[in-house]
Amino acid sequence: MNRLSLTSLATLTGLFLSPATVTAQSMIEDTTPRKQALTTWGVQFEEFEYRYSDADEELVVWNGDLFYGTDELKARWLTTGEYAINEQAYETLENQFVAQTPISRFFDARAGIRIDTPEGQDRTYAVLGIAGLAPQWFEIDGSLYISDEGDASAEVDAEYELLLTNYWILSATLDGTIAFSDDREIGVGTGLVSTETGLRASYDLIDRTISPYVGVVHERQYGNTADLTEAGGGDPENWFAVIGMRMVF
């Protein structure tokens, strides 16, 4: 009888206490402040370099990025350019202002505008693109552009980094541009416009925020674009020795 009484008492106690316990836990969970998305910002330059070509051409080249936002939505200012030292003129000057959001575990989508303001004709483009990490650890960046003149083009950039030691890194890059229509005012013909391939060896310094590097870059134009460049007295193919640094703040 005593054993039965104790068992019954335990059962009754459980029936009375379980709802109270659940209710208390629910109240604690409900009153716990929700975590807000962490806002971050930063500035980075993948390339900030001096180039010297086999035709004695000297350039200052940069490829930078300023971002602000959360993991779910970022505002980014992407800037790239080439400044010819001897001519004291911008060969290219491009700024993109885009919003970026994740679309998968490894890729983000972005949309915005691109503004080109070199020494020649200016252009404004609508931008739609993706960026992320492909299989085998290739960094991929692809964009589709529609200009204010109605011309369409696409650009794909790929980069692969090989870790030689904890500080020495060998980076291989490939950038390609395709135009779907002629834009002769800026020297662009239909088809494959140009490619740029590079190989750079860098050394990480100061907690990997600054990485000086040396390397080589090959630029080449194709098809109608190469013909337009030659007609204007330019060279559609160049090799460059480069020295520069990567910076992250």
UniProtKB/TrEMBL annotation:
<dbReference type="GO" id="GO:0005507">
    <property type="term" value="F:copper ion binding"/>
</dbReference>
<protein>
    <submittedName>
        <fullName>Copper resistance protein B</fullName>
    </submittedName>
</protein>
<dbReference type="GO" id="GO:0009279">
    <property type="term" value="C:cell outer membrane"/>
</dbReference>
<dbReference type="GO" id="GO:0006878">
    <property type="term" value="P:intracellular copper ion homeostasis"/>
</dbReference>
<keyword id="KW-0732">Signal</keyword>
<dbReference type="InterPro" id="IPR007939">
    <property type="entry name" value="Cu-R_B_prcur"/>
</dbReference>
<dbReference type="Pfam" id="PF05275">
    <property type="entry name" value="CopB"/>
</dbReference>
<feature type="signal peptide">
    <location>
        <begin position="1"/>
        <end position="24"/>
    </location>
</feature>
